[in-house]
Design brief:
Elements lengths: L2 H41 L4 H42 L5 H26 L1 H7 L4 H33 L4 H23 L9 H24 L16 H33 L3 H37 L3 H35 L5 H33 L3 H26 L3 H26 L5
Helix pairs in contact: 1-6, 1-9, 1-10, 2-3, 2-5, 2-8, 2-9, 3-5, 4-5, 5-7, 6-7, 8-12, 9-10, 9-11, 10-11, 11-13, 12-13
Length: about 450
């Protein structure tokens, strides 16, 4: 094969990757920006102590919320992989049954029981995560309301996963951007008490976010129920099918284990940082909020890689699947590295948008500059892990997460925070080592090529 022909193929594959990735990237970037604005609103509440407590409370409450999301997303990994495989194999008629199974499992099997459990143990959970009594008091209503909206969020995630597997990424982008934009306005109105509404502070943020989750689900459900997409959903009864369940279990169980390990590890990581005090934890939470921007290229191009790898394997073309993974990694890593460069240079300015406390600015800037160094490795492993999931290889990504995050990051963070007093710099150095280890494992697995089988 000539060099010019190879270059033309690579260019075509990059275009295919971009066609799926750019709507997801825009959706995720805007969602992160909206989330950052929400955090800025709380961080700029006039009472500085209350502002720090509110930001810390959001960080604490997000830990159990993210565990719930991870459980649902584990089933959605199987949904995306199967839908993309059916598209490639020309078996679109199998998509609706798969989606119905995913919705049923996500809501009744996972989201509802999780919601009831975490609501029943609200105070012990927040205490275990290191929240001081003042933070628990401030975040109590936020916790209850936000987690109520989680059930609608779970259904929305499942519908989005199916559409992304079909390569239809523009529709979720449009609906989720609308919901998030309205959430920002709702937060401003209810946090500060604009237009005659009461100033509810962090409780107002919870109400607005929960309502935006309901709206996003209504918009997405209305789209698939109208039958305009290859991903269709009708209200006729369905019965559980063993082969669909087996496929979801085969992909979903390792993915579920991975997500559980991921969120458990991050929860312990948050607990370690919370031991440094409310102001440091507020700075840590601000750094995580900004970090969302750098995650987005890896997540967006990982989703594109997952959909395209699954489709190519459905077409029985493993070499094409490999090429999609490589092109997605190159594009996503370049964008993430550029964002990391901005973090390195403008860290104090980014943080000052959230909080004017000099101690918080200095502490969060340290974390942000360490985050900048993570970017090339973080984005690469996120994208290649997405490619592996698209092939149904969720066992290897589970092993990588288990070793790097739950073992390496948590133990190293404990050592560098509680044994050697390096504070937030020690915690985020542990995160840097975690990403390096995960990158080595995932890259090795992808390059070996066993997932093609």
């Amino acid at each position: 094969m000539s060099d010019s022909h190879t270059q033309n193929l690579d260019k075509f594959h990059r275009q295919e990757v971009m066609k799926i990735a750019w709507p997801v990237l825009i959706e995720l970037m805007l969602a992160s920006l909206f989330s950052m604005v929400d955090m800025m609103m709380l961080g700029n509440i006039p009472n500085r102590i209350l502002a720090n407590q509110s930001v810390a409370a959001v960080g604490i409450v997000n830990q159990p919320l993210f565990i719930g999301i991870s459980l649902v997303q584990s089933v959605n990994v199987g949904c995306t992989a199967l839908v993309s495989r059916y598209i490639g194999a020309g078996e679109e008629y199998r998509i609706e049954d798969t989606l119905k199974h995913v919705l049923f499992i996500s809501f009744l099997g996972l989201a509802l029981p999780f919601f009831l459990l975490v609501q029943a143990y609200r105070v012990p959970i927040m205490s275990f995560l290191g929240a001081e009594q003042a933070v628990i008091t401030v975040g109590a209503s936020y916790y209850k309301i936000l987690l109520s909206g989680f059930m609608f969020q779970a259904l929305n995630f499942s519908l989005t996963a199916a559409l992304r597997g079909a390569g239809e990424t523009k529709v979720p982008m449009k609906f989720n951007v609308i919901a998030n934009l309205l959430n920002v306005f709702g937060n401003a109105i209810l946090i500060y008490g604009l237009f005659g509404f009461p100033a509810l502070g962090i409780t107002g943020a919870a109400i607005s976010t929960a309502l935006s989750n309901v709206l996003a689900f209504i918009l997405m459900f209305g789209y698939v129920i109208r039958g305009k997409s290859v991903v269709k959903l009708t209200l006729k009864k369905f019965r559980f099918q063993r082969n669909v369940l087996e496929n979801l279990v085969k992909i979903g169980v390792p993915a579920s284990a991975e997500q559980f390990v991921l969120r458990t590890g991050l929860m312990f990581f948050a607990k370690i940082v919370a031991s440094l005090g409310t102001s440091v934890y507020a700075a840590h939470q601000i750094a995580i909020s900004i970090l969302g921007l750098s995650f987005n290229p890896g997540m967006a191009f990982g989703i594109a890689a997952s959909a395209l790898v699954g489709r190519a394997l459905g077409e029985e073309d493993p070499d094409l699947a490999y090429s999609y993974g490589i092109q997605a990694r190159k594009l996503g890593s370049f964008i993430a590295s550029f964002i990391g460069f901005l973090f390195l240079i403008f860290a104090p300015w980014f943080v000052s948008l959230y909080n004017k406390d000099p101690h918080v600015i200095a502490t969060a800037s340290i974390a942000l500059r360490i985050i900048a160094l993570i970017q090339p490795f973080q984005s690469s492993q996120l994208i290649l892990a997405g490619a592996l999931r698209g092939a149904g290889d969720t066992v290897s990504t589970f092993v990588a997460t288990l070793i790097s995050l739950l073992i390496v990051r948590v133990s190293l963070a404990y050592l560098l925070v509680n044994v050697y007093p390096y504070g937030i710099a020690g915690a985020w150095t542990a995160a840097l080592v975690d990403q390096l280890v995960r990158w080595v494992i995932v890259r090795h697995r992808f390059n070996r090529g066993k997932w093609k089988e």
